[in-house]
Amino acid sequence: MTDTQGSTERTGSADNGSAPSRRSLIGWGGAGLALGAAAAGGAVAMTRTGNDVDPAGSDTGGAVPFHGAHQAGIATAVQDRLHFAAFDVKTDDRAAFVQLLKDWTQAAARMTAGHTVGEGAYGGLPEAPPDDTGEALGLSPSRLTLTIGFGPSLFEKFGLADRRPDALVDLPQFPGDNLDKTRSNGDLCVQACADDPQVAVHAIRNLVRIGFGTVAIRWSQLGFGKTSSTTPSAQTPRNLMGFKDGTRNIAGTETDRLKKFVWVGEGDGGDWMTGGSYLVARRIRMDIESWDRTSLQEQEDVFGRDKGEGAPVGKAKEHDKPFLKAMKPDAHVRLAHPDANHGATILRRGYSFTDGTDGLGRLEAGLFFLAYQRDVRKGFIPVQRALSRTDALNEYIQHVGSAVFAVPPGVRDKDDWWGRTLFSKEA
How, if at all, do strands 363-373 and 81-89 pair? Predict the structure, then answer.
């Protein structure tokens, strides 16, 4: 990655000019050094033009714009890799937490544009840790997006209880849930998506470094193999069961559907959330060993689709409108379809995962399900209630992790920051 706006380039050398380095001016104070990890980017306006800009509906491999009315990483064309991290806040100092959000914003703007954090990974004061960890040096932006969300527990801190939106509800316990508390919830989250796994991991790692002492990782999840698409012309990716699911996902170019089902509108409650969305994250374990011994006919009956094309029962192509009554009553597609849920619609951005074994000779594998919606009460909850009761797929899956977050609107410009509408008195 090449940094043309900072003093250090990811593929170049340090600035050897006569101006004193920022770190030499700060001195040896540990707190100052940690805070400075993102500060150098604060005075630099991010400018991306021409082929470096990746619109929400395209898939060029360049840089996705960080600034805008909505956060990137929601309607953006889904990237190939994921690193998702949930954090606990470790301070009761509101000003310190706000400063962290500002520092994170500056770092995120730089990393998504392909630049190093602060003064870079080398060339600075030899006696101090570098501002950037360096493993993304020489790599392209890889369409990196960073998306932040605030969990219900955050609103118990910093006097924010009266600003918690009504739509940010605690999810109910669904039938079949076997949730691991150590892999659930969180005061806030950051979703890093990119086409290169090292770019995604680098982004989360640097945010963790900047946040040391203020926040701490609660749990995280790596994802490979996107299982959803927000690009109309693309085929729906397959999950680890070998099936296409969610073929009628909301596309990044469908502005009317995004407005209706994804973006929080004026008057929805919690004005600071206007332009934002709500995220439900579910870690779904798949019993793939049992699934792999199931007959093809039963597999297709479970989903309500054929395995080859992904077409719904009785249809020829994956995007053909399904005839729900032609499917078995407990077919996954039939139960999840908006027509079976009074129109409830979500935007999916799920990823497959494998995390070693479960200690019983089976792969620890499954789907990390990410769903964005305008209101959790009208999106994920009614759909999951229907699925948890009678979905034939439940024989082969189990929900083992869960979290819900309020995703604020986008960062408007270089002077804006993540969460400003929630924390700023002027907002």
Answer: unpaired
User: What phi and psi, each to the nearest 5 degrees, are found at residue 30?
Assistant: -60, -40
Look up residue 28 and give its two tokens: 């040896």
Instruction: Yes or no: say if 47 and 57 are a contact pair by the CB < 8 Å rule.
Output: no
What pLDDT score was predicted for residue 245? 87
Contact 173, 221 (CB under 8 A): no
DSSP, collapsed to helix, strand or coil, labels residue 110 as helix
Q: Which two tokens stand for residue 177?
A: 């849930």
3-state per-residue secondary structure call for 328-371: CCCCHHHHHCHHHCCCCCCEECCEEEEEEECCCCCEEEEEEEEE
5 pLDDT exceeds 80? no
* pLDDT on residue 254: 94
CA angle 259, 344, 380 (to 5 degrees): 95
Q: Per the structure block, which two tokens stand in for 179?
A: 């949730």
Listed residue (129, 283, 140) closest to 200, CA to CA: 140
Determine the CATH number of domain 72-90+144-427: 3.30.70.3420
Mean pLDDT for all residues in the chain? 87
What 314-319 contacts at long range (C-beta under 8 Å, 24+ apart), as own/partner pairs, is 318/235, 318/236, 318/244, 318/247, 319/247, 319/248
How far, CA to CA in Å, does 307 sit from each of 232, 296, 303, 330, 370? 20, 8, 9, 17, 23
The one-letter amino acid at 290:
S
Report the C-alpha gap between 64 and 137 in whole angstroms: 18
Confidence of residue 248 (pLDDT cuts 50, 70, 90): confident
Q: Which two tokens stand for residue 234?
A: 């693309």
**Can you say how many angstroms the Cα of residue 349 is from the centroid of all Cα atoms in its chain?**
8
Residue 14: what residue type?
Answer: A
Cα 367 from Cα 365, distance rounded (Å): 7
**CB-based contact 119:134 (threshold 8 Å):** no
One-letter amino acid identity for 413? D
- Per-residue pLDDT of 192-230, as tens digits, reads 999 999 999 999 999 999 999 999 999 999 999 999 899
Cα 405 from Cα 389, distance rounded (Å): 24
Tokens of 204: 């989360």
Residue 144, amino acid: L
